[in-house]
């Protein structure tokens, strides 16, 4: 595991839980609006956490933590992720995985083996525009579609989520996403926010009014649609 970040305590990353967040390095997408540039494209002199450092922390704090959120980057790129999660579960902690859904086989295996308690999967855009926003060429969307279909089987608690930008997401796009994930358990629209770590800082957020309008458009498809990141 390439672990490039550790947030020791968070009340935000794992809904309703006190958690630590572990940030893995590397990603198979290069979304220009991503606010984790140094995780997606780690610099040559990056300092990684050792496994011992992570578990020293978790062992010390396991009595006050409910769980661990594993995010990135894209965690499912790491073949040793299942063993890593298994050791976390042995501490009696819940595990939430953040993923882009490009590795449905690992996702299914983790869920079927009882290693995940919550999954948050990014939906970058409508199917027709996925390649453009993920900065991929001739990307095969079937893996994403497989992960969406699997999560909708409700084998694990989950949510879908989309970071929304004025320059990228129109009302028509939102409708197409709604049709795609119709019947999902929960969907969150996250407002874009500028940061020093954004890969390409050329984007801007929709107004709160527009985002609220998008939520109302989506509710016929996913009744549990909410806004996240709105002050």
Write up this protein.
The protein is α/β, with parallel strands linked by helices. It has helices at 37-40, 51-61, 81-89, 104-112, 130-134, 142-151, 171-180, 208-218, and strands at 3-10, 19-24, 67-71, 94-99, 118-122, 157-164, 187-191, 225-228. Helix 4 (104-112) links the parallel strand 4 and strand 5 (118-122). Helix 4 packs parallel to helix 6. The radius of gyration is 17 Å and the shape is globular. The model has no long low-confidence stretch (mean pLDDT 92).
Features:
alpha/beta; 8-stranded mixed sheet; about 230 residues; TIM Barrel
Helix-strand makeup class: alpha/beta
Instruction: State Rg.
Output: 17 Å
What topology, given as strand order, has the largest sheet? Answer: 1-2-3-4-5-6-7-8
Q: What is the CATH superfamily label of the domain at 3-163?
A: Aldolase class I
CATH architecture descriptor of the domain at 3-163: Alpha-Beta Barrel
- Uncertain residue ranges: none
Order of secondary-structure elements? EEHHEHEHEHHEHEHE
State the CATH topology of the domain at 3-163: TIM Barrel
3D shape: globular
CATH class of the domain at 3-163, named Alpha Beta
- Our estimate of the beta-strand percent is 15-25%
- N/C terminus separation: 35 Å
The major β-sheet equals: 8 strands, mixed
Helix content: 25-40%
Q: How many helices in DSSP terms? A: 8
What's the rounded overall pLDDT mean?
Answer: 92
